[in-house]
Amino acid sequence: MSLTNIEEFMPEKLAKAIANPLFPTLDNALRSGRHVSSEDLDSHAYLIEFEKELAMFYRRYNAELVRAPEGFLYLRPRSTSLIGRSVLSEIDMLVGKVLCFLYLSPERLAHEGIFTNQELFDELLVLADEQKLMKLVTNRALGSDLDREKLFDKVKTSLRRLRRLGMLIPIGENGKFRISESVFRFGADVRTGDDVREAQLRLIRDGEAVVHQQTSSQSSLLDDIDTNNQEMLEMQQDVEQAVQESSI
């Protein structure tokens, strides 16, 4: 088949993008919900170079290649997409919001951008009502040491999931990590120029959820956040109150 015939079906630059050795791994990562930030030097540069062509490519699957104002890129399947998707759990969402809170906080500079699993867990307990958090473990949880240990295990599971999505950059093997700019998926309404503390508050109160790959039978929280979830609403109100009290 001649080059002319090929170009009737696929533009030359798109063919070049697909032929790139980075494409198979990166395509699989994007379909799995990974966010590609500037820390992923080669992958990020590749997506920027071929952004227009790849956006057209994924449009055939009813999915949108999005570049956020912060510079990271991700794939957003639509409701009719051929690419499967699912939603994050409530605790995944809450952990993501706290990560975004920490990303904008003065503590990030003080820690040189590095946090630990324990520090994230402690911050979560400060911002959210502990008893409501315990209900994410079991309705029978009373706040015992064992319940807290189970909650911590769930938080670590959420951190591992968010790491696979490109939200965290692991540092060694001691539960340390650096927060990626991709956590702004949990606060897409906040941009530069906003008051930092007010921005942090909105990130936790109104943070945007993130999707990851599992099945195509569930709806994405990016399209429809469940506003009828009273437990989540009450927890977010407690977070708002905690942040307001800390500013007094």
UniProtKB/TrEMBL annotation:
GO terms for cellular component: cytoplasm; nucleoid. InterPro entries: MukE_C, MukE_N, Scp_MukE. Its main location: cytoplasm. It holds the Pfam family MukE. Keywords: Cell cycle, Cell division, Chromosome partition, Cytoplasm, DNA condensation. One of its GO terms (biological process) is chromosome segregation. It is found in: Cytoplasm, Nucleoid. NCBIfam families: PRK05256.1 (NF003602). Interacts, and probably forms a ternary complex, with MukF and MukB. The complex formation is stimulated by calcium or magnesium. Belongs to the MukE family. Involved in chromosome condensation, segregation and cell cycle progression. May participate in facilitating chromosome segregation by condensation DNA from both sides of a centrally located replisome during cell division. Probably acts via its interaction with MukB and MukF. This is Chromosome partition protein MukE. The gene is mukE.
